[in-house]
Amino acid sequence: MNLKKIVFYLVFIMVLGFGTLCAAVIQTQVSNNNENIVAELTALTLQNNIITVRIKIINKSDASDKFDFYFKDCYIIDEANQKKYYILKDSEGRCIGGPFSSDGDGGRFEFWIKSQNMMNMWAKFPLPTDNPGSISISIPGFMPFEAIKLALK
Fold first, then answer.
1. pLDDT at position 10, please?
2. Which positions ≥6 away from 79 have C-beta within 8 Å?
């Protein structure tokens, strides 16, 4: 393969947003229990009145560490209108997010993250009815991501 094709494919991949090279960090929060575990909010998208949140959980320690929570305990807050919105669920009661380690109790994120490694997660929430300019995002085990701007059309 010649250099021109390689450059074309690299640009194509970056434009489509594949991989983690082009993922910008919106905000970073530290774990409540372990300063070596951090969460980076990497994307917040809005489509059809559904907010999709993407978070990268990073283990910065020298040892593997287990991180776990139930998706049902994730929520967003419309602070301007003082309302809390829980993660969306499917018709069988499973939370719409992932990855799951088990389906019990709506779904659980329970994974060992190797030293100096990361794991991505995502979750879907309803758009707050009062169309706030920003929200806070709460993921169990981390300080909240606060004042996250919503780009409403």
1. 44
2. 132, 134, 135, 136
Helices (H) and strands (E) counted in the chain, each on its own, are: 1, 11
Contact between 56 and 152 (Cβ < 8 Å): no
Buried b (16+ CB within 10 A) or exposed e, 45-73: eeeeeebbbbbbbbbbeeeebebebbbbb
Closest Cα partner for 137 from 15, 40, 53? 53
Tokens of 79: 């602070």
Query: For residue 26, what is the DSSP state?
Result: S
SS3 at position 105: helix
The model's pTM is: 0.81
